[in-house]
Design brief:
37% of the residues lie in helices and 20% in strands. With 401 residues, it is an alpha/beta fold. Strands 1-11-10-9-12-13 form a six-stranded mixed sheet. Strands 4-3-2-5-8 form a five-stranded mixed sheet. The chain has a two-stranded antiparallel sheet with strand order 6-7. Strand 9 and strand 10 form a beta hairpin. It is globular, with a radius of gyration of 21 Å.
């Protein structure tokens, strides 16, 4: 059996994914989510995309992701341009073992400090936001283990842990933060995408198109955090199902687990192991256990802990193209929702999977082009240093809608 025959037999070939059909399912599911139905949350951020730029002021910012917790001081100059000072990074609390609620928020508060009264908190997890720019954690993903935090208000919990001197904590999702952080007076940004440990996309939606909103905001536009990692419309094969079963929450975030960086390395290794069991790869791949950066090095021809194998490279390349196509579908849905035919969508992109994974960017760009071309929509990818922290800083000064 050849590598192609193996991939085809197990529904792993990128060409076996009908991207346009998946996009149609995604758009339908997004519409359901705006009505409060289906499995894609489509979470209102209660933030507009055109927040006035603060001037001559500062705040504290946190960026809690699936791997790291970053923090710093955001300073706005007299023109409203933002810079990040005293940037620090530690492992995300709860990823190195279970934590109770108090220990978790104490760890966050230690990073936030109490020298600035306003805090912007980029929180890369599924949160149900409310109009006061705080929200309840719906569920963890990315293997964070703080079960007591679910169902509690994120901003209020952090404010309490910081103590006196904290006026308030404004919470927003990572994709929303990336979108806000990339905007300038010279360019409008309508879509933000995270492609790192996890995947998420946000976009600007007319409030009249959000039936589930508990308040009436006629004539206004709001950023929606889609949480498209919960999409369940991509074809699944036995390797996918075994991969889901090995995660903390097997029934959640299937699209994310099929294409995001926090899971893709494990999936590739699982397929390598299966290929070795079927005689496609040599026996040393039966116990293959590489990280995604190591797999990227292998594809780039750099030294890795496993021997170079053209067949293993071909399998990894196919799975990365498949992941890139899935990620493009997840991006195309929000772009279509907020971009008219003939227009160009500026997409703020953040995440190491897009910037560092060998072959991913090319596959993603090609697939997104193919998906948007029938709609006569073009796009530009925008990358900004510390976009999520800068977006969190802007949100710290936002007024509720």
């Amino acid at each position: 059996m050849t590598v192609h025959e193996f991939l085809h037999a197990h529904l792993l070939c990128p060409e076996q994914l009908d991207a346009q059909a998946a996009l149609g399912q995604l758009l339908e599911a997004m519409g359901q989510g705006l009505r409060g139905q289906g499995n894609i949350p489509m979470l209102p951020s209660y933030l507009p995309a055109d927040i006035p730029l603060p001037k001559n002021t500062a705040c504290r910012v946190l960026d809690a992701g699936g791997t790291n917790l970053r923090s710093g001081r955001a300073v706005f100059d007299s023109q409203g341009y933002c810079r990040i000072e005293n940037l620090t990074k530690i492992p995300m609390p709860g990823t190195e073992g279970p934590l109770d609620l108090e220990s978790f928020y104490d760890a966050l508060a230690k990073q936030a400090g109490n020298k600035e009264p306003k805090v912007g908190f980029c929180f890369s997890f599924n949160v149900e936001m409310e109009a006061d720019l705080d929200g309840k954690l719906i569920a963890w993903c990315k293997e964070v283990q703080v079960p007591e935090a679910v169902g509690r208000y994120v901003g209020a919990s952090l404010k309490e842990a910081i103590g006196p001197g904290c006026e308030g904590v404004h919470v927003l999702n990572d994709s929303v933060a990336a979108m806000l952080g990339a905007a300038t007076p010279e360019q409008q940004v309508r879509v933000g995408m995270i492609l790192g440990t996890g995947v998420n996309v946000c976009y600007e939606e007319r409030c009249e198109e959000i039936p589930k909103l508990p308040i009436s905001l006629p004539g206004k536009r709001m950023i929606i955090s889609t949480e498209v990692g919960e999409f369940d419309g991509f074809p699944k094969n036995p390797f996918d199902l075994a991969h889901f079963a090995a995660t903390e929450d097997p029934n959640l975030a299937h699209a994310e687990k099929q294409c995001a960086g926090g899971y893709l390395g494990g999936l590739i290794c699982r397929v390598w192991q299966g290929a070795a069991a079927e005689g496609i790869l040599e026996d040393s791949f039966r116990t293959a256990d590489l990280t995604l950066p190591q797999i990227s090095d292998l594809l780039a021809g750099l030294p890795t802990p496993i021997p170079h194998s053209p067949e293993a490279v071909a399998i990894a390349e196919a799975l990365i193209r498949r992941a890139a196509t899935m990620a493009a579908v997840l991006c195309a849905g929000p772009v279509i929702r907020c971009t008219a035919p003939g227009e160009t969508a500026n997409i703020a992109m953040e995440g190491s999977q897009y910037t560092k994974l060998h072959g991913f960017r090319t596959g993603f760009t090609r697939a997104l082009t193919d998906l948007l071309k029938p709609k006569n929509i073009d796009f530009t990818i925008i990358q900004t240093d510390n976009a999520c922290l800068k977006g969190a800083a802007l949100a710290a000064f936002a007024e509720p809608m």
